[in-house]
Amino acid sequence: MDRRTDQLHIFFLPMMAPGHMIPLVDIARQFARRGAKATIITTPLNASKFSKAIQRDRELGSDISIRTTEFPCKEAGLPDGCENIASTTSTEMYLKFIMSLSLFQQPFEQFLEEDHPDCLVAAPQFSWAVDVAAKLGIPRLFFNGTGFFPLCAIHSLMEHKPHLKIESDTEEFIIPGLPDTIKMSRQQLPDHLKYETESIITEIVRNIMRAEMTSYGAIVNSFYELEPNYVTHRELEGRKAWHVGPVSLYNKDNEDKAQRGHGISYCEHQCLDWLNTKEPKSVIYICFGSMSVFSSAQLLEIAMALEASDQQFIWAVTQDTTNEEQTWMPERFEEKLKGRGLIIKGWAPQVLILDHEAIGGFVTHCGWNSLLEGVTAGVPMVTWPLSAEQFFNEKLPTEILKIGVPVGAQAWSYKTDSTVPINRENIQRAITKLMVGQEADEMRSRAAALGNLAKMAVEKGGSSDNSLGSLLEELRKRKSSSN
Ligand code: UDP
């Protein structure tokens, strides 16, 4: 049989944000390893973050490539080089960024018409892609970077609106219809969900929801054994979804792990050399994802808690760039804690660090990727949600899986619109509970068991491997019946 005519061709259109781009590039690479032709569409600056990995895959025989189109910074009213949501520094810039996604429609449509792929996997923020794909008769799957539990919880909230039936922002409500009793408060919801007053954001969210509802189905970075009741719940809602994760496990060697999301290896050897001197499960890794920026006051509280906690740590610090570094760091902090703590200023090779046997706990903002990467590494976590859907995500490790200790974050806030800092006593208390005592041991063994299930899921015959296989099979059948 002619491989060229039989081969599936899939377009991937990731949202330009690390938390979306990193897993979707992993997924595209895995599709190509399983015989499909994969084309990733993005802008030049974003492409530079993963072009080396794609080149390596091509040399190993994968049929994968990148097509770029310029980011219309000027038309969007954004500064040059602002091609990724992580580069936006205010809600206003964020909105301009999201609005500018419509400017991609024309070049993207041209790519689709030229190549006529068999399937399009796109972030729901490109809501116009549904219509474009439908016009050309191409099935569109959506990938929004999150898991089954948050998808179900958000869906229930939007349908039943329990948060609009309570008196105050701090009063708790139950999310109706879920397999577990999950309570939240209105202050933990994103602004656009809180009161449902009409705004540009509610309009954007409506378009995103429409794009989700009218898609052929979803690709989810999760695995069945992590959230079986929610995989089933989603099926019962009549929504097609394929779980193909944890996708971080598609990065097998240290080069892939170290470069993931950044394009170049950054402090890989410094981290590994340092971790190699430590006992197994003795180090806490602290990182709040790719978007969060803390105030100096909050950084100081974390530093003081770490100093007082007596624990060894690696801390990836991102700070408000308007603040000078030394304004928050306690006097002689790095010098005093040399050997006990390693501070990484900027991007950390997260998966490489988490996978090291010396890591025994993770302080995380509960971004879905980080959460899953922590689960995959088999480590318990201190949960510190900040924004996006992170307050939903937090419930999975703390209340359902029982591998998480909440730091006590109560209110949603975006970037530097920060609320009152979490104080050092609360941070220290959570860290100690994570690392010391019987409860810590029990959480650690539950986390280790989940870590093993995660690894089995992507192995041959595992739940995610099978799910990816059945998606490919379905797409191949569609292709052959339309030929
Ligand atoms: N990440 C990383 N190094 C960093 C910060 C983030 O490798 O210093 C990666 C992390 O491994 C994850 C992604 O960036 O894959 C962040 O996604 P997540 O959903 O956790 O959070 P977001 O950045 O979207 O808030």
UniProtKB/TrEMBL annotation:
PROSITE patterns: UDPGT. The keyword Ligase does not apply. Keywords: Glycosyltransferase, Transferase. Residues 461-472 have a biased composition (Low complexity). Its EC number is 2.4.1.-. One of its GO terms (molecular function) is UDP-glucosyltransferase activity. Residues 459-483 are annotated as: Disordered. CDD domains: GT1_Gtf-like (cd03784). Belongs to the UDP-glycosyltransferase family. This is Glycosyltransferase. It comes from Nicotiana tabacum.
